[in-house]
Structures are given as C-alpha cells and as structure tokens.
Design a protein that fits this description.
Blueprint lengths: L16 H15 L4 H10 L7 E4 L8 H6 L3 E6 L2 H14 L4 E5 L12 E7 L8 H10 L1 E12 L6 H13 L20 H10 L3 E6 L3 E6 L2 H11 L1 H7 L4 H18 L6 E13 L1
Parallel strand pairs: 1-2, 1-4, 2-3, 4-5
Antiparallel strand pairs: 5-8, 6-8, 7-8
Helix pairs in contact: 1-4, 1-8, 6-10, 8-9, 8-10
Amino acid sequence: MGTDAGTTGTHHEVAPAEAWDAIAAGYDEFVAPGEAPFAHAALVLAGLGVGDRFLDVAAGPGGLSLPAARLGARVLATDWSPAMIERFTARVREEGLRDAEARVMDAHALDIEDDTFDVTGSQFGVMLVPDQPVALREMVRVTRPGGRVLVIAYGSPAEFEALQFFIAALRAVVPDFEGLPDDPPPLEFQVADPDVLRQRLTDAGLRDVTVDTTHQERIEVRSGRELWDWMLGSNPIAGMIVGDLPADQQATVRQVLDGVLRERSDGTSPAVLSAPLNIGVGTK
C-alpha cells in the first residue's frame, strides 16, 4: 500500500457517527457473528486472562469485547456511535455476561485515566480512524505498564475476496466505476502492509511488537443478497456508493453476485470468501 508509517494522508471518505448509527443493526446481524473465531485467537495472542481489565476501542457492537467478556475479562467497550453501544449492551444482557459495560467515546480522545487496562484492543475500529497515530497513542496511554495493546486490521485489499467480488459486480453494471483509490488508500487499508502496522505500534510507544498474518476472516454467503447485506452492513461507505444507483441497477449488481457465488460453491454449501488479517500486539 505504501503509506508512510508516520502519517495518515488526506482522506475524504470519513463517515460520521450518524452513518455508523444507521448501519449498526446490519453490522450486528450480518457482520459481527463471523468475527468471533479470529477475535478469540487474537485475544489469546495478546495474553488476555480471566479477571484482566480489557478496553475495546471503536468496538462497534462488540466483535472483540464480547469474546473478551466470554473469556472472563472485565470489559469496557467504547465507540463514538451510540447505536453500536446499544447493540453491544443488548448482547451483554442477552448472554448474561458479567463485568461488561460500554460508553460512548471518541477513539482520538479517550475519557479514561492513564495506566488503567491490562489489555487494550481494537478490531476493525482504530483501523479506520482518520488520525490513527493519535488513536494508537491514546490506546497506549490508558494501558498499564507491562500491559498489551492489540490491533486487528485488514491486510491487502487485493486479497479481500468479498470486496473484490463487490467491486467487480459494480463494474459489470457501471463500467466507469473507479474502484478503490491507491494514494492514499481508503482508511480501512492504511495499515494493510504489516510493516506499516508494526511501525505505527512502535511509534505509539510499544515494545516487542509482533504482527501475525496467519489468520483470515472467512465470510460465508449463499446469495448475492447475503453478500450485498454483508458489504452494506460492514461500512457506511458501501451504502454511499450504491445509494447513487437506481433500484434496477442495484438489483442487477445482486444478480451478478449471485452468478459469481454459484461458481464458488457446490450448490449445497455456502461460498466461503476470505480476507487477510494483520493482528498486531505490543507491550507497553
């Protein structure tokens, strides 16, 4: 991706909190359930233990903080979207999880005292904030000395199959659709290069930083509609793109996706689309 580790670049696609509020239900229904396996693996890599204090920054509906609570950690989930926090709180109630609470908070300015948490993490959250170096320093600030900071982000967009299928289907219907910009890349991919993630975590004040690239997100879909729902639930930008298309073109995009997914499945099982992950862990 080539983004300098010390800068974020100029990005124009930052969605406001209200846009994340609008997709909170879709994220909770279509996206979050598939995050649990690699979230659990990442928490193990970070050494999260029973009774540890865990902070989830830009938590969404709890893709990382719910697994942390299930492991017996004492959890605080934060997000700038009130609707995402409401979804997390509802899940906590449904599962009867103990020691799990949530607060509306901006990742760039955490309203938390220094040296508070044993592990501070962010899954697909700080990945896409507009000033990531500031948010990472905030994560380090609120972590106790000797504690760990965990960041889960997407790897190369070229290997993100759901995204590439979606872009290809859009181009089949709208041939002049430009696709993803390269310089700067979309916020979602500013640390797609593992070396950039490693450097940013180091620059934020962490030592012994490692970046694991062996895990993948696996997205199971049975139809073009399911992939469409996943994409629109995962990020407001997708909805902004297709929102400009008339209803008949949107339907045609889903039909194109249907055809592509039929080629990927055996007709009885869902198509499984993979996305590479960078899991960065460092010690304060």
